[in-house]
Specification:
The complex is a heterodimer. Chain A is of the alpha/beta class. Helix content of chain A is 49%, strand content 17%. Chain B is built from 1 helix and 10 strands; from the N terminus they run H-E-E-E-E-E-E-E-E-E-E. Classes of the chains: A alpha/beta, B alpha+beta. Chain A: It holds the Pfam family DUF2487. Chain A: It comes from Bacillus thermotolerans.
Amino acid sequence: MNWNGKDVESYKQQKEYIDTAIMPLAPVSFGAEMKEAASQYEFIQLLTMLLEKQFKGRTLLLPPFSYQSKKREEDKIAALNSWSEELREAEFKHIFYFTSDSGWKLVEDKLDGTLIWVPSVPLEHMEPSYKYSLIEEQAKQFINIIAHKWQQ
Amino acid sequence: MSKQPVSRRQFLNYTLMGVGGFMAAGMLMPMVRFAIDPVLAEGAAGEFQTTNQKVDELTSTPVRVDFSYEQQDAWYTSEVTETAWVYKDENGEVVALSPICKHLGCTVNWEGDNHKNQFYCPCHGGLYEKNGNNVPGTPPTAPLDKYPTKVKDGFLQLGKPEPQTIA
């Protein structure tokens, strides 16, 4: 389900079936990493959109958690854990975070949820058809990871 | 003066007729164009989207066919990619099924998770027969939608998915 009026309406009706939240983690910075951050976000956005399409009936794709790159690690972790707390209260059994920011990988065990770190690919100069097949290839792996998590 | 073939009166008549004719044509042409436009447009746009799947290469095993087209929604143009599971039935007819699960809209897979000869939905374990009929006892309550199909120059064309009734 997407974060829009129509999908949220069906989420409300079918709550017991939708137990998985997907949240992209998007760093924002205006310094040297500005372009990298934007390009990572583009990649993660396409990837999570495709996963939502695949698993529409069991996942809710949330708006991205965006944060300033320069913020201290502890503050970022606290902010994200406050989200996961609220998601657990809303009865989401599975939480997936998607990011290209390698900072999260180092603090993975402090998070409540599954962190999926994907090294991003610069897409800006790519042919659309090639771009989609590349994202699809990537998504296939995560489809398996998510399906596997559900079976546990 | 008698040698002059066109008199002043004739000249004015011709000129007025000519100009009037052009004006009338200028008004009528767009009207006629509008009137016959739907007839002309049909061949060009139509509802069918061409895929890059050759019909000759289809077998009785469903294959995934992706096709994309541009969709305009107010100011927002987006490229939409759709998928169909396509195979030939025992009479050699092409069958194209929508992969959208009728339960809550996940994407179903052919023989997913080792379900032989069935479509499997990974979200809540929905199952469908090869012809798209939902297996009773699993969450879906209706058969998979079916695409109308056409063949053009050997390539498969798909229309808008339509609901199926249980056969």
